[in-house]
Structures are given as structure tokens and as C-alpha cells.
Amino acid sequence: MTARALQTPRSVWMVSREYEGIAGAGGVKDVCRQLAETLVSHGGCAVSVVLPRYGFVDAALLGFHLAEAGNRAGRIGARRYTHLFEVDMDYSGEERRETVAVWQGELNGVRLFLVEADRYASKRGVYTYTEEDEQEVLWQHRGRGHFDYFAMNVLLQKAALDLMMYLDERPDVIHCHDGHAAILPAMMKENSGYRPYFSRTGAVVTIHNAGLGYHQEVEDLNFGHAITGLPRRVINDSILGSGFDPFMAASGYAVLNTVSENYALELQHSPEDSRTGWLGHTLRARGIAIAGITNGIDPKSFEPSEPQALHLSHGFDIRKRDLEGKRACKRAMLAQLGNIKVWQQVRQFGVLSGSPDAPLFTFVGRLTSQKGVDIVLESLLRLLQQEEDLHMLLFGSGAAELERQLELLAESEHGWGKICFLKGYDPVLANQVYAAGDFFLIPSRYEPCGLTDYIAQLLGNLPIVHRVGGLVKVIDGETGFSYTGNSAGALAETMRRAMTVYQSGQEAMERMQVAAVERIDSLHTWQVVMDAYMDLYRQAMRRWRKP
């Protein structure tokens, strides 16, 4: 047997705060599920995933059952459990334990575990407080992160390690997703309760977003020391800025990667790293590299030739250049938006009253400065005065001020009939917006990878992107449009270029639409991406196994 075969991972566990179909707030949910399922179906791996059982998740309704993990019976909240275990969760000056149970289920060959605990059961959102939370408690502002975020993360990571021990499983690799799970490798190798058991287990930490506010750091070093149980030297060696940083902690015990090659380069070799608090440059100074693996996508999940699965009004097949159904989707969407409609989960501001023959620009996503929504607003103000055929449909929610500006623009004299804002989110409606649009705006200030550009391309909606991070995978003039210098002027000028291509005729649009899908098929499926992760897993295993 070759050395490579001996180092081929067979058992992979993932720890994440999100998983598509159970709980999600961003692209992490899609990456986690699609990579996990590909490792099972194409990599020959047994994959298990651990995440919290949030208050909005009905585990029993999803088909989960209680796992036999733990050696005592008792209660969590009002429910009695026959298998519980306790997790050390000390605070500064206070020895503490928290009681957990575990739900178990399976989805497409992936074994899933949900950690049941009071700390999670009280949460209505994955990362932030909801409007309902704010109505109950004034200081729990909608959109603000949970006050106990760090304890939530540590509990998940410790419970995951304890669960593996209760089940007598020693994974080849534990794959930790983002800062929420990045302390696990250090605890696994430094804390005496875990160190012997996981002596041959490797770890990979994927940085989905290294921006400030995403590290899950804590500035109370005494609290960080107490609750993680890590030695003081590890705490002190993991400081970035003024706080204990989980990514810094992971760097000494795990292989690190981020979600595109270009984002990895930006973090370690460009001034863009200032957006992270200089995480990448600090690691580079220590001789630690961050690998870049561009996220993949499962094209079958966004296949417009099967419209029922996506709840589209009509089907179409881009690969065969059969796009009449796409044009019908656009007409259907414009018909709905010709008047103010009462939607179930969405509120409409403004209407679209233009011809289906005019180009339709779209945006779907979080309304934040990072996503460049303020740049979109400024560019629309410019174009409204100059372009008669401008039509823009925006769909999402986020920062209250940006929501308000979009509401006012859509209902203004200049915006009425040309700008429509759908506030809220509904995945079914999102698919319909993707399918209806001709061009999809992604003017992000930074973007580790980007998944919306993939989705837009698969549904025939050509992306217009700021050439940064993972968005460099959009090839200007071939699979979409890109620009540098992220200003309202640059975006507006690129939108004009797109309109020129649209007005030149159907052939030019179809050529780009087909090229975009074919590029995804050849370079960006999860089957292709999985091989790169398998190499990372082998690297992580070699770190802790002697030849």
C-alpha cells in the first residue's frame, strides 16, 4: 500500500454553525452541505457534521432522533432526556458545567448531529437577534450579535469533541468552519482530556470570511482562558489587536485555507488585509500560509430545465441555447411587479412598468456596506437621469438605513416604474428573481468567494462584479462583466457596457450565458473542488502521523 493510500482520509467530521436545510444565514450553509455530500458520494468518506439545535429548528420534525451519547438522564429546559453529558464551561473565577444532549439524523449520506442545550434553544437566529427578540428585550437589537456568542462557539466545539469520544470515533480529520469552530484544533491538542484521544487526528480550518467582525474574538483574556481551558501561553500567543483570536489560535494546530485563491493572496500579500486587522500578514510573518480553494457549486441544485424544483414559472436550458423560457420568466416577474403586490414574507416598494425588451438589472443579498449597496444606490441615482431603459430589481434586507434609502428611491418620482425594492427574504422568490434578470450586480467591497455569481450564471443572469477576492472568476466580456476601482462611476459605466451588449442582440447575450455555465461545469463543481480539500486533509493528517 502506498504512502498516499495510507494518508487518504476516510472519516471526516465537520463542525459548523450552519448547514443548508437545517440552519443558515449565509454561504457557509451551502459550502458545508455540498462539500460534505460530495465527500460521501465521490470521495469515499464517512462524513459527520455537528451544529447547534437552535430554537427555530424542530429536530423531530426534520426526522432526527435522540442519540445515545452521555451516561446520565436529566432535563434540559422542560424536556427529560435519557442520555446527557456535561461540558466544562468555566467562567473567570467560577467553575461551571453545561448540560447537553444530542440529536442524530442523516441527509443524503451525511450523518448529522444537533447539540441540544439551553444556550441554543433560546436563540431565534443563527448569529443575531431577531425582531421578535427586540420586542421582548429592548437591548436585544435586531441584527446585533448574540451577547454570549463566544460561549456558544466554545460549547459547540467542546460538545463535538466529547461526542466523538462518547461514540468511540477517532476521525482522520476534523474540518472546522470559520471562527465559530476555529479554537477546536488547539483545544484538541492542548487540553489533557482530549490530547491522547485525538493524537492522530488532523484539523483543517476554513476561513469563510476574514473581515473584521467575523473572527469571533474575545477581548477578556481571562474569560477566554477559563472557558477554553487553553494554557496561558496559547492565549497570549493568539492575540490579534487587543483580543484572543480563534484564527490565530488555530494556526499552530491546523491547516488553514480560505475560499478562493485570490482572497488568500489578498490576505497575505496585499493591503486588502487591512480589512482583517492584518490577520493574513501576521500569519505570514510567522511562516504560516493560508491556502486558497475557490468554493464550488452543484449545478443540479440550480437547473432551470427542471423549473418545478426551483419554483420557476417556465423552464429553459442554457447549454442547449433554449432560452425562451427565461424570457417568459422575466415577463412573469414584470407582470407581478407592475403593481404593488402583497407578498407573504416580503414587502414591495415601487413598481416596474417597462417593456420586457428592456434589460433588467437585479440584486439579491444582504443590504450591507460590505456588499456595496451604498455604491448601487449612488450609481442608480446617476443612471436614472441618463438612461431611459434602466430597470432595477433589488431583493434583500439588512442595514436599516440602506433599507430606508432603497424604499425612498423606489417610491420617488424618478424611481417609480424603474426601481423596485423587495424587502425581506424568501428563497423561492430569490430563484425567480435570478431567473428573471439579465444582469446581476455584485459590487462588494471585498468578497472571499461569492456564490451568488454562480447562481446567477446558472440561471442565465450575467454578473457585473467588482474585481476583488473570489469574484475574479467572472471573466470580463466572456462570462459576465467586471471592473476595478469600486466607485459608483465605475459601476454605472460597467452597467452601460452591459446594456450595450444587450442591445446588440440576442446572440451576444446567449454566447456569454452559455460560456458562463460551461465554465462552471468544467472548473467549479464540487467534484473538482473536493480533490483540493482531500489534499488539505492529507496535509493535516501528515502533521500528526509519523511515516
Concise structural overview:
This protein has 547 residues and is an alpha/beta fold. α10 crosses α11 (279-285), α13 (324-336) crosses α16 and α14 runs parallel beside α15 (400-410).
Blueprint (SSEs and pairs):
Elements lengths: L2 H4 L4 E5 L12 H16 L2 E7 L12 E2 L5 E5 L2 E10 L8 E11 L2 E7 L1 H4 L9 H6 L12 H18 L6 E5 L6 H7 L11 E6 L13 H8 L3 H6 L1 E2 L2 E2 L1 H5 L4 E4 L2 H9 L9 H7 L5 E2 L14 H4 L13 H13 L9 E4 L11 E4 L8 H12 L7 E5 L3 H11 L8 E6 L2 H10 L2 E4 L9 H7 L3 E5 L14 E3 L4 H16 L2 H18 L2 H19 L3
Verbal overview:
- The chain is an alpha/beta fold and 547 residues long.
- The protein has 20 helices and 20 strands.
- It has helices at residues 3-6, 28-43, 118-121, 131-136, 149-166, 184-190, 221-228, 232-237, 246-250, 261-269, 279-285, 307-310, 324-336, 373-384, 400-410, 427-436, 452-458, 488-503, 506-523, 526-544, and strands spanning 11-15, 46-52, 65-66, 72-76, 79-88, 97-107, 110-116, 173-177, 202-207, 239-240, 243-244, 255-258, 291-292, 346-349, 361-364, 392-396, 419-424, 439-442, 462-466, 481-483.
- The strands form three sheets. Strands 1, 2, 3, 4, 5, 6, 7, 8, 9, 12 and 13 form an eleven-stranded mixed beta sheet that branches. A seven-stranded mixed beta sheet has the order 14-17-16-15-18-19-20, with helices on both faces. Strands 10-11 form a two-stranded antiparallel ribbon.
- β5 (79-88) and β6 (97-107) form a beta hairpin.
- α2 crosses α20.
- The longest helix is centred in the C-terminal third of the chain and has 19 residues, at 526-544.
- The two termini are 13 Å apart.
